[in-house]
Amino acid sequence: MARRRKIVIVEKDKKDMEKIANNKNYQGVIAFVPPFSYCEIEDILEYAKGKNEEPFVLILDGIEDPHNLGAIIRTAETAGMHGIIIPKRRSASVNSTVSKVSSGAVEYMKIARVTNITDAIDKLKKEGLWICGTDINTDKYYYNQDLTGPIGIVIGNEGKGISEKVKKNCDFLIKIPMRGRVTSLNASVSTGIIIYEVLKQRLQKKN
Hints:
- This protein is an alpha/beta fold.
- The protein contains 7 helices and 6 strands; from the N terminus they run H-H-E-H-E-H-E-H-E-E-H-E-H.
């Protein structure tokens, strides 16, 4: 298939391959590709408009673990989200680890990398999106909140959560109930729970 597409193929022995991959679990193939091409926030909104759907956007406030970012991208893509916004600083960026963990979903997801998350939220608000933050200290559970309509979901840093500045800029806050002794979830798991609740409510509204 690569030859048919005129992609240059070079065969190397196992030792060379492991050196290039810097990882023994490279599955026998290594691809050299251009850096990931980020988009603008406007591209995400335009994509939603082109699909005749209300914008459904994910805002990541400082996800630092590339494995978490990859898993989040995979879940967001399966839920039909229109795009993801990440900050340029103090955040994982799209790299080979993120791409692999996303199982290829990164190739289908629009991702904007911005200088300031608060400014990005202001831009989304001006375009009519409601901004929903996640915070353990709020009173409202995610399933009791109306999550239909144009919406941006904010997920915070793995340890610190959403920054105070970003939290104050959210229209409302929701939380996931905790019944065990451990009172926090992995960021990618939290993301999955919330965005699939949005999808469920959207489908119910449509029906």
